[in-house]
Amino acid sequence: MPTHYKGNSEEIRALNTYIKLTRAADSFQSRLNSHKTQGELSPTQFGVLEALYHLGTMSQGEISAKVLKSSGNITLVIDNLEKPGLVRRMRDEHDRRMVQVVLTQQGRELIEELLPGHVQAIAEEMCALEPHEQEELGRLCRKLGTYQSS
Q1: In whole angstroms, what is the distance from residue 85 CA to residue 79 CA?
Q2: The pTM is what?
Q3: Nearest-angstrom CA–CA distance, 43 and 109
Q4: Which of 4, 94, 140, 147 is the most buried (most CB within 10 A)?
């Protein structure tokens, strides 16, 4: 559904594009969630485990930046991952103010078990686009995501 905003053509085009982008992302995520590839984890919990798995130990602030969630939200997510022993918080030896989050062996085993099925589900959902369209969408998303307005 297009915007009902009565603005100039630039504003209407931008709003319509934003609506399409948001709906497509929400729809894609909903379909991905229906595959149940993240086990009992929330998408954010899964993202944190995946980030720690691929990038190694990080501070909560670094994790927050990687998964694009607020620091307050990440604190709760890490609390909930720490309870079942999937991650562990460690004070930095050199700067006791800094808390590092470490993937435990149990967390590593879980993400290694879930990740292949999750990647397969993403690949299946992306089949809606031809390979060159996936590349173009990726390029456009990166451009939009890194844009710095003046």
Answers
A1: 10
A2: 0.85
A3: 18
A4: 140
